[in-house]
Design goal:
It contains 18 helices and seven strands. The chain is mainly alpha-helical.
Length: about 500
């Protein structure tokens, strides 16, 4: 017995509810990223000074060196929102951009998958993989830009019009000032412009001489317009040079490392990738749009090599995966007599709806406890030590781990300059980064002491219990210690007794 139309409708509604609840559940995380403090610090200074920074004056290890603040426009928006609405405004801004991005991902996905049996699971899986990219960070602008560009190009299907150029150029100009990963959008346009020529060269379509001129000229002109628009930043064409330098520079951060197959957080991405490969024989979208196939393949390689790219892969692979699963399901249905009964369909609809309600309940409980504001775990930051420095008005050059730099800048600058912070790729030369990481890894190598000897370091903040060269230096005195961090100063007064570090989830900032 087959399911009745009424049961099918209830199942469709249940999947729609689960997709909506999953979008909120996976994208509404309200934990502050460790770079948010430095983004707000930078945005606040731009608003106060009325100028985009060109040289660094917040650190002592790279003071006076060029600072390519490729995210300045987003930082200004963040700082303005925080000044007028606190961390709740920042959270709502992030959630709004994330939900708009999810909707743009949904549009091509829904067009290429007729069955909710495909639409629902693929979209939920994509949202789970996307969730790793949705903190309050400027990269959410790139996620939105890529989703919008894909949805627009897929709808055009090669039929561009000159009237759209001004809007595309303006969008790329804004994007380039909001986040340097605008080059991803440029890469998409390059693949799109190359497709007609590649197909003609391989004999899939008529030779270029016989193709309609607009089919060849418009995509290339659009690519050229985007390149010019990207140069409309305070750094001009140097933005491209910065991106090349950053991609070549060593990145010791975990998000730049290869995907760990045993990491549970990577399972949605790995499942998407495996499903995409297994269903490739049923590809329709990727066979028609070679530029999209090249994009997905390139991002799959990048994501495996550097896990920070997994959300971008999920965003770009969602529609092709839905298309392939839809074709595979149709192929199986034509060769199978199995059909869900009306009772089984109703039970499945009930289970899907119950899962959606559980997601909403979990999300609602979390947000109610934290009152819809951004929070952070006190165990991850030197809250007590920074409060000690601020209360005593201490100043100097503070050496500290990368993840603590932005927190210290927001609370202590300009009295304190830091050795390293979340701007490391935009400010700090590789030797400075290497020296900082060597010291805070607790290396026994004598080079680990360079942070003390080669720079004018006067204060050091280290994770409690980490072995460092300070243990063998008589001129350094312990000023403060708690369960999280220990603060040292050159020739300072020794601490009288250990303190107790703040605990739990604290309201940002």
């Amino acid at each position: 017995m087959s399911a009745t139309p009424a049961a099918e409708r209830w199942l469709m509604r249940a999947w729609a509810l689960l997709v909506a609840s999953s979008a909120l559940y996976f994208l509404a995380d309200n934990e502050a990223d460790n770079d948010l403090w430095v983004h707000l610090f930078s945005g606040r200074r731009i608003l106060e000074r009325g100028a985009v920074p060109r040289l660094d004056d917040a650190s002592y290890t790279a003071a006076g060196l060029p600072w390519v603040d490729h995210e300045w426009l987003t930082q200004v928006l963040f700082a303005w929102m925080f000044a007028h609405g606190g961390s709740t405004a920042l959270w709502l801004l992030k959630l709004g951009i994330a939900l708009l991005t999810a909707w743009l991902v949904w549009l091509p996905l829904a067009r290429h998958a007729r069955a909710w049996w495909v639409r629902g699971p693929v979209m939920v899986l994509a949202l789970a993989a996307l969730s790793r990219g949705y903190a309050v960070r400027p990269q959410i602008v790139t996620m939105l830009g890529v989703a919008a560009l894909l949805a627009w190009l897929e709808r055009r299907d090669g039929r561009l019009h000159w009237s759209e150029f001004a809007a595309v150029a303006a969008a790329f100009a804004l994007w380039s000032n909001a986040h340097g990963a605008v080059v991803v959008g440029l890469g998409i346009l390059a693949l799109y412009a190359a497709e007609p020529w590649l197909k003609a060269a391989l004999g899939v379509t008529p030779a270029p001489a016989t193709l309609h001129r607009a089919a060849l000229a418009l995509p290339i002109a659009l690519l050229a317009a985007a390149i010019v628009a990207i140069c409309l930043t305070p750094y001009g064409a140097d933005l491209f040079a910065y991106v090349i330098r950053e991609l070549r520079a060593p990145h010791p951060l975990s998000e730049w490392q290869p995907v760990a197959l045993a990491d549970p957080a990577q399972r949605p991405f790995l499942l998407m990738l495996a499903a995409l490969v297994v269903t490739l024989p049923f590809a329709r979208l990727l066979r028609r749009h070679w530029w999209w196939a090249g994009l997905v393949a390139g991002l799959a390689v990048l994501a495996l090599r550097q896990q920070r790219h997994t959300p971008l892969f999920a965003l770009c692979a969602a529609a092709p995966l839905a298309d392939q699963c839809d074709a595979a399901l149709s192929w199986l249905a034509a060769r199978s007599r199995f059909r869900f009964s009306a009772a089984a369909t109703a039970l499945l609809a009930l289970a899907v709806a119950a899962f959606a309600v559980a997601q909403l309940a979990l999300l609602g409980g979390r947000l109610a406890r934290e009152r819809g504001a951004l929070v952070y775990d006190a165990a991850d930051y030197p809250v007590g030590a920074v409060r000690y420095l601020a209360a005593r008005g201490l100043h100097g050059n503070l050496a500290l781990p990368l993840d603590w730099g932005g927190y210290a800048l927001w609370h202590l600058a300009p009295a304190v300059a830091v050795s390293l912070d979340g701007r490391f790729a935009t400010v700090y030369p590789p030797p400075v980064v290497a020296d900082g990481f060597a010291f805070f890894r607790g290396d026994a190598d004598p080079a680990a002491a360079r942070l003390l000897d080669a720079y004018p370091t006067s204060l050091v903040l280290v994770p409690r219990g980490l072995p460092t060269p300070l243990d063998h230096r008589d001129e350094w005195r312990l000023l403060y210690t708690d369960e999280i961090a220990a603060l040292y100063a050159r020739d300072g007064d020794p601490a009288t007794s250990p303190s107790t570090a703040p605990r739990g989830r604290l309201p940002f900032p």
